[in-house]
Amino acid sequence: MNKQTLISSALVLGATLALAGCAGEPSSTEVPSASASGSHSGHSMDQSASANDADMAFASGMKVHHEQAVEMSGILLGKSGIPADVIALAERIKAAQGPEIERMDRWLSEWNMPEGMDHEAMGHGDGMVPEDEVKALQGATGSEAARLFLEQMIMHHEGAVAMSETEIKEGSYPAAIDLAQQIIDSQTREINEMKQLLETL
To answer: What is the C-alpha to C-alpha distance for residues 49 and 44, in angstroms, rounded to an integer?
Structure first.
């Protein structure tokens, strides 16, 4: 009887341990907590966040703004007798802003921006260079062309920085706000660089 009692006890104990082990298994498939999943929320939010009017105004306006900067850089790069440092700057502007134009174009397409918010006719207050000044750049040569380019691009960059500051204050789309900060950082550096280059002409 004692032997049978021991065997029964051992079986009961084994079954109890097995059930305890099974009860603990679901922990390996738990849904991640909010804090754990949130650790990657920085740019993943871009897919679900909605854009507000400020984001649309920023993307549409900055796209046109960038297009003019790329145009002006192309005009300068087509000239001879331009200082190497100014050429390098124009090449950097063109290389950086081209992909940003494509990025903003994709956003605008995804957002289905209302036509009433089209910012094609942005004014001089946004740093856009008037057509007659762009024509003056086209007709200039050598150091005069370099000087005009730098003066016009400083004003142009200052307008972009102001637009980006507005986006950071009023926008809601994380990727657009990130881009605005990048523009402020990079173009502020370039403004300082261009002012130094002007002193060498």
So the answer is: 9
